[in-house]
């Protein structure tokens, strides 16, 4: 890991601590931070000589793509101040934002973190596309 990425990782850890999560879970280089009961995955990476921070929150699983859904996601992307919807081949719907590490401060990190978590709580799922709202921790119907 180069110095830029190491410094950015340290900065993200410090910001998580400043936001009240000094012990954020970090499996395999991914920081998982709980933001208003929404797990947000935080990764850093290096591209083109720049360090980047990516924030991702899963909104739903088992989503079935349709023209109606893709239209709603496009409208959601147009309306988003920062970030965009991502629909993966396995039916996972997530909201993500990627920010350049240089010039990023605690206020920008925190505001983006909250926007990503908030977007994931209200995914644009039209009636016919299926989908199961993602919850954390998973709800046990037996309890």
Tag the structure with descriptive keywords.
143 residues, alpha+beta, Yope Regulator, Chain: A, 6-stranded antiparallel β-sheet, 31% helix
Provide structural commentary:
The protein is of the alpha+beta class and about 140 residues long. It has one domain (about 5-135): Yope Regulator, Chain: A (2-Layer Sandwich). Helix content is about 30%, strand content about 30%. The chain contains 3 helices and 6 strands, in the order αβββαββαβ. Strands 1, 2, 3, 4, 5 and 6 form a 6-stranded antiparallel β-sheet that branches. β2 and β3 (about 50-65) form a beta hairpin. The longest helix has 16 residues, at about 5-20. The radius of gyration is 16 Å and the shape is globular. About 30% of the residues are buried.
- Model regions low in confidence, pLDDT < 50 over at least 5 residues: 135-143
Distance between the termini: 45 Å
**The CATH top-level class label:** Alpha Beta
**Helix content class:** 25-40%
**Rough outline:** globular
CATH topology group: Yope Regulator, Chain: A
Q: Can you count the beta strands?
A: 6
Order of helices and strands: HEEEHEEHE
Give the count of structural domains: 1
Our count of helices gives 3
Largest sheet: 6 strands, antiparallel
């Amino acid at each position: 890991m180069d110095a830029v990425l190491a410094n950015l990782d340290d900065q993200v850890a410090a910001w998580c601590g400043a936001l009240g999560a000094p012990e954020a879970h970090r499996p395999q280089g991914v920081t998982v931070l709980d933001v208003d009961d929404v797990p947000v995955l935080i990764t850093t990476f290096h591209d083109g000589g720049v360090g980047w921070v990516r924030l991702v929150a899963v909104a739903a699983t088992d989503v079935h793509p349709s023209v109606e859904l893709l239209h709603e996601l496009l409208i959601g992307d147009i309306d988003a101040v920062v970030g965009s919807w991502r629909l993966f081949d396995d039916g996972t719907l997530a909201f993500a934002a990627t920010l350049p590490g240089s010039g990023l401060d605690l206020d920008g990190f925190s505001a983006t973190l909250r926007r990503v978590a908030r977007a994931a709580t209200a995914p644009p799922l039209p009636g016919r596309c299926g989908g199961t709202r993602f919850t954390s921790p998973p709800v046990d119907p037996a309890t």
